[in-house]
DNA sequence: CTGAAAGCGCTAACAG
DNA sequence: CTGTTAGCGCTTTCAG
């Protein structure tokens, strides 16, 4: 082992002596700063400084210490550091729920987007708000910052809780009234409007709507977009063409089955997400109709599978990954104390025309 | 505020005095054990004991303290507790990778399965092994235990690392040679065999294979199952009917396009996961063929969308969620020091017949 | 049953 | 540039 000793070792300490000391360290489970200090005859402060790249230390000693630390596989004790620094090195990524109406694709893209930005020194802690009765476990000493993927006003309770505790918070996916907050979301209304406009441009006089979970902000925003498009094109809104879903495939299927029973069925459908669009497509097919010949359909999200359907699904792309990564970057700045302008950022949406819409 | 004081408060401390003391606490960000101790004129040791439900304390004082703590919204400082107890209260959930070949559905089901079991006192830390150059950051003081969702032998390095550090580890999704480990996975081989057998039973004389990432254990196991089924039915193996994919939809599409160019194309295809099956279905459709008339296809995983395709996809269900939750339970036992028998658990797979297979 | 004292490993004034 | 000292909030001996 002593053959690997870096040459920069203290001249005061003979190589043999050092070997002896390392030996005496024995089968210690983990090396501490004190160990290194004793080994090199310096104070533990000096070691701490070296390891934290402090400027208050000579390059020589720093190198000596850093080398030794590496050799001994020193790993800092995060609990100790956390205790004294009052930081947890935990970043929370909280979803309103981990089950049901959070679609797999959405979840995946979000976690992926955040994880790609978060630094190695942080733990990314994933959780569903609905898992717990209260928020007591969310504490400034346990989370340096939190990214909330919000769906509805029900989450406001949590937002206020966080404000109270002064825990840095970034809210994704839903407009938040608090101006002091960083708030990143996609332009749901604009996207929905574009989707419906596209159907109208393609000659559809009637556009049915399959809605998401009532109460979710994405649902109301996309409904607004739907309304706007209809109104601007002088198309009257028919209640019988609007069905509620809950963002799951099954709900899309059920909603479509109902729409098929309307006396004068629409020629086109806008589903508020791709999963419900799939469900609707399944319902249409199982009823003996075909897409886009009998029905045109547009989804929302551009889930990764939407290009692979038959027919491929026309949809609205909103980069969930970008929302997530921008949110994560903002949170990191917030945690680092970098002053960033709070406020709302809309990530653009874009219509992706594919085969599920027919021009009439 | 003093109206809400519980009646059990120390008689030694008059209500007014207590109010005064609480006042003096002022706008402290967080209440500590010491605060409570001072408030109630007991030692901080006593408070600690009460809060930890120690038997070395009278019911009366315990109640008094617990009530006060609740009233003051006391939250323990996990860093401090961790430091002294040498536990992090972090549970790691590590994937070989967070991108690419980890499908959204798989990821979602796994996280969901684990999160449903993990106790509130733990943080669930999600990570991809490929995000980092080394494993130094994975430390026994930073993770009480880790669940590894493994794909290939490349992850062995990590497994050994964990063994060395004696960090409790549960490995999911892939057979691990180490007998001392808890190892939970689905019966990939059996599932694949069932899938291929099903095609053969339905009169198919030729079954093409679309494989997963070469090197992934799921890939080789499922290939084995494919071979076994063919051999037991006296069907010869044709190399031209086997294409490699990487578990993504696009790879399934490409593989199928190649299979369509074979001189005598097969009447059926077994794709090693549902995503590739979708890709294959897209390729078949775009080439002007239809399913199941021209080609029968079976997937693997029973992803939630497979029932909603047109035609719906015959596939093999393996409960990823169950693998995950069983793994999490085992890890929790391990962390708690409960002696559990290590070893391998196979979660059963089950063929789910749907419309994508035609009987000839 | 309760309290006093020690110490976990680290960082951060404050002196030299 | 380096060392001394103190202390983060908690649990845990060890004495009463």
Topology summary:
2 copies of one chain form a homodimer.
Chain A: H1 15-25, H2 33-40, H3 44-51, H4 59-71, H5 78-85, E1 90-95, H6 104-115, E2 123-128, E3 145-149, H7 156-165, E4 169-172, E5 182-186, H8 188-201, E6 207-211, H9 217-232, E7 242-244, H10 249-260, E8 268-271, H11 274-286, E9 296-298, E10 315-318, H12 320-336, E11 343-347, E12 349-352
Parallel strand pairs in A: 1-2, 1-3, 3-4, 4-5, 5-11, 6-7, 6-8, 8-9
Antiparallel strand pairs in A: 10-12
Helix pairs in contact in A: 2-3, 3-4, 6-12, 8-9, 10-11
Chain A binds a DNA duplex (16 and 16 nucleotides) through helix 3 and helix 5.
The average pLDDT score of chain A comes to 88
The number of helical segments of chain A is 12
Q: Count structural domains of chain A.
A: 3
Rg of chain A, alpha carbons = 28 Å
Q: Return the string of H and E elements of chain A.
A: HHHHHEHEEHEEHEHEHEHEEHEE
CATH architecture of the largest domain in chain A: 3-Layer(aba) Sandwich
State the shape of chain A.
elongated
Helical amount of chain A:
25-40%
How many beta-strand runs of chain A?
12
Detail the poorly predicted runs of chain A. Answer: 1-16, 23-28
Oligomer: homodimer
Largest interface: A-B, 56 and 56 residues
CATH class bucket of the largest domain in chain A? Alpha Beta
Strand order within the widest beta sheet of chain A = 2-1-3-4-5-11
The third-level CATH topology of the largest domain in chain A is Rossmann fold
Structure classification of chain A: alpha/beta
Beta-strand proportion of chain A: 15-25%
